Amino acid sequence: MSQITTSTDDSQARLDALSELSQRLLDRCRTSGASQAEVSCNEESGLTVGVRMGEVETVEASRDRSVAVTVYFGKRKGSASTADLREESLQATVEQACAIARHTEDDEAAGLADRELMASDIREFDGWHPWAVEHEPQRAIDLALAVEQAGRDFDARIDNSDGASLGTGTSLGVYANSHGFIGRERSSQHSLGCAFIAGKGDAMQRDGWYSIALAAEDLEDPAAIGKRAAERAVSRLAPRQLATGSYPVLFSAEMARSLVGHLLGAVSGGALYRRASFLLDSAGTQLFPDWFAIQERPFMPRGFRSASFDAEGVATRESALVEGGVLQRYILGSYSARRLGLRTTGNAGGVHNLEVAANAGGLDDVLRGMGRGLLVTELMGQGVNSITGDYSRGAAGFWIEDGEAAYPVDGITVAGNLRDMFHAIEAVGSDVDARSHVRTGSILVGAMTVAGEG
């Protein structure tokens, strides 16, 4: 898809204004007696359109801004925010943050991240690509209609549409603190997708597809998105159930991301210092097979979470999260690190672009290697216990025989324990789903309990 940017780009001037605003607010915090302070200023704008059955349903333009102020009086913390940039509102926000701090208890872990950890080399990673359709609603509508029409024309069994949508937006942000750090970021993000309903009556099945990118030129072709969504919906017609048993389970790439997400939740500082994780005291231990690896890459061009600094201004760095199957570290900001007696990993606000290393070929290769088992393409419910690691979720997908899809299945549950599931991973495919900051291919777990009929 061709990329068209807006004719005038005033983003740097707007970042200059946000930077100047953040400095004025820090000065006010200092004048008010704060020993430390930090300020986040953000501006976002976007357009979202939705169509269904060839008719326009929604056209929504948005423009948001926010200012958040956090002050520290010694080890006491107070925060306040506003969307009103009038001087009296900004002054009231600082005063409110200071009042809160004066009435809170001391917290020995409170405070800015250490000064020496602040990022000094602040770069951009080719993530700023505004799309002209933000200012051209009719063109956005036409693209959404084209996606839906391509899917409706694909197969006569597509009897209904759940709609198609296009979203585009930009974001500007400045973070500054009383260490003298100031970091500026700008990014864009665009999406195009649709969902269809195949079949009639009790035999109806729903599925869809979407594309998302930082630059419009990286989006999939609208016709291809519509056709793939329709193909996925039709492929689910006439599902069967399975006999309850223990089977190999292959999580498609988009579902495999959730397994990585459960790992991230369990090794995040907040869960650890609250002792609400099944992976307490697991750093340095073998959690996965010895070939398994996850690398954090914050400097990827056009990466969804590329950044030179985290939410506290700490410099990001490339590092292993898992190497040789061993958990190398936790995911920490400065507060959680202090609570645990450790050092921040530069992950305040989350991780920056994770890559799960593959040890196998594409999806077809992994299916042939599995031979017989369950391919999961949809997960439902929230049946994961973060304290015990017990895992039980509704699922749908395809039964695999002789390395090929034999028939669709639904109305089943896949269950196990995440620690056991991690150990039982047999393959990671090279079929990476690039629509997320967690980049992984399909993941094959050697055996899980599948609850179906009987």
TrEMBL record:
InterPro entries: Metalloprtase-TldD/E_C (IPR045569), Metalloprtase-TldD/E_cen_dom (IPR045570), Metalloprtase-TldD/E_N (IPR002510), PmbA (IPR047657), TldD/PmbA_N (IPR035068), TldD/PmbA_sf (IPR036059). The keyword Repeat does not apply. GO terms for molecular function: metallopeptidase activity. It comes from the Bacteria. GO terms for cellular component: cytosol. Residues 136-237 form the Metalloprotease TldD/E central domain. Residues 37-101 form the Metalloprotease TldD/E N-terminal domain. Keywords: Hydrolase, Metalloprotease, Protease. Belongs to the peptidase U62 family. This is Metalloprotease PmbA. The gene is pmbA.
